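Researcher: Sequence recovery benchmark, item below. Answer with residues only.
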């Protein structure tokens, strides 16, 4: 009889809604998802920034070529 009471008490103890392990797993999952999303977002915006720099640089070179090849313009324009 006493053994059954101990088992019952043990089962009642195990009926906790949230265990510490589960809470830590959920926190870790959200941290991992947040870091992954943050890394992808950072890479995307860095790529956009580099694309804009590349575009501006290419545009400057194209304008330089245009001015240098245009007749009647000084070809000593340097960028």
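Model:
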């Amino acid at each position: 009889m006493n053994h059954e009471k101990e088992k019952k008490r043990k089962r009642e103890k195990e009926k906790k809604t949230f265990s510490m392990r589960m809470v830590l797993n959920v926190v870790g999952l959200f941290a991992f998802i947040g870091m992954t999303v943050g890394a992808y977002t950072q890479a995307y915006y860095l790529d956009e920034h580099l694309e804009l720099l590349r575009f501006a640089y290419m545009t400057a070179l194209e304008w330089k070529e245009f001015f240098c090849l245009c007749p009647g313009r000084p070809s000593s324009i340097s960028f």
